[in-house]
């Protein structure tokens, strides 16, 4: 699933390509907005809000999209072959005189009034990569339920916006506790919040995410995706288990030697 840094890059690409340009064509391929026509409107810009994208148009309209597991926005020059997926996966097309933005497999796509953006993203906690970042408020929200496992608390976008499953696992490894440790038992939780901010900032403009400082394939992450492979720090086999409420479980990776705290049964 795209995380906050990936969505930040998507917003920057869309903004650079479309902002200040007038749409010559729009096509929203979702039943509720299939008849909406944005052509003739200037694109004000695109911003990220956590894992959400907000593309604003003159006249006070915003196209709200969310990538979730495998959604994507791709940019093409006029006449360029589209490689983002088959035609039936396209959910949105925004075209200017020289560029085309195509949204593939977008599970969330809605046209809203710009003053009503809070209806779509107002529930989010402080955005790790946004201008509203407030570490004290993020910490307050995380600690509001001290019995909740830290892994679940980090993924809850109402606490702080932008962390996905990769960063959840990596942050817990770097903190040396398992993702099942109750949030109230996390040592110096303010350091966890600061580290989350530092990691996303360091990776937001990178093509390949790294939490280890290494750029070589297979060495960029400490534990995520390393099932049964040796921990880069101690050599113990990395383990994986599901974590989260029923129906929302995520594969969670951890090193049983480097990380202390409870583990799944």
From TrEMBL:
What sequence ranges are listed for the domain FPG-type? 222-260
Q: Which domain of life is it from?
A: Bacteria
Keywords, ordered alphabetically:
DNA damage, DNA repair, DNA-binding, Glycosidase, Hydrolase, Lyase, Metal-binding, Multifunctional enzyme, Zinc, Zinc-finger
Question: Do you know which SUPFAM superfamilies this protein is assigned to?
Answer: Glucocorticoid receptor-like (DNA-binding domain), N-terminal domain of MutM-like DNA repair proteins, S13-like H2TH domain
Instruction: Write the protein's name.
Output: DNA-(apurinic or apyrimidinic site) lyase
Tell me the organism. Answer: Streptomyces meridianus
The opening ranks of the lineage are:
Bacteria, Bacillati, Actinomycetota, Actinomycetes, Kitasatosporales
Q: Which residues form the Formamidopyrimidine-DNA glycosylase catalytic domain?
A: 2-103
Similarity section: Belongs to the FPG family.
Cofactor(s) essential for the protein: Zn(2+)
PROSITE patterns in UniProt: FPG_CAT, ZF_FPG_2
Record's InterPro entries?
Answer: FPG_cat, FPG_N, H2TH_FPG, Nei2_N, Ribosomal_uS13-like_H2TH, Znf_DNA_glyclase/AP_lyase, Znf_FPG/IleRS
């Amino acid at each position: 699933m795209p995380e906050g840094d990936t969505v930040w890059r998507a917003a920057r690409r869309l903004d650079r390509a479309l902002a200040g340009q007038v749409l010559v064509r729009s096509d929203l391929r979702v039943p509720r907005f299939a008849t909406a026509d944005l052509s003739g409107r200037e694109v004000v810009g695109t911003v990220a809000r956590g894992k959400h994208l907000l593309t604003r148009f003159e006249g006070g309209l915003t196209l709200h999209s969310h990538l979730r597991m495998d959604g994507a926005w791709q940019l093409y020059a006029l006449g360029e072959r589209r490689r983002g997926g088959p035609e039936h996966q396209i959910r949105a097309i925004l075209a200017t005189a020289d560029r085309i933005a195509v949204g593939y497999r977008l599970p969330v796509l809605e046209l809203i009034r710009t003053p009503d953006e809070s209806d779509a993203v107002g529930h989010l906690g402080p955005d790790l990569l946004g201008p509203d970042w407030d570490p004290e408020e993020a910490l307050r929200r995380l600690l509001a339920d001290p019995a909740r496992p830290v892994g679940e608390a980090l993924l809850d976008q109402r606490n702080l916006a932008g962390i996905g499953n990769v960063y959840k696992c990596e942050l817990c490894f770097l903190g040396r506790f398992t993702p099942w440790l109750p949030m109230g038992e996390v040592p110096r939780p303010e350091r966890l919040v600061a580290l989350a901010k530092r990691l996303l900032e360091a990776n937001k403009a990178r093509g390949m995410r790294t939490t280890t400082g290494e750029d070589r394939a297979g060495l960029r992450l400490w534990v995520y995706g390393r099932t049964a492979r040796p921990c880069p720090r101690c050599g113990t086999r990395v383990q994986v288990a599901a974590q989260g409420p029923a129906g929302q479980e995520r594969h969670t990776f951890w090193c049983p030697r480097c990380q202390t705290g409870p583990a799944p049964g």
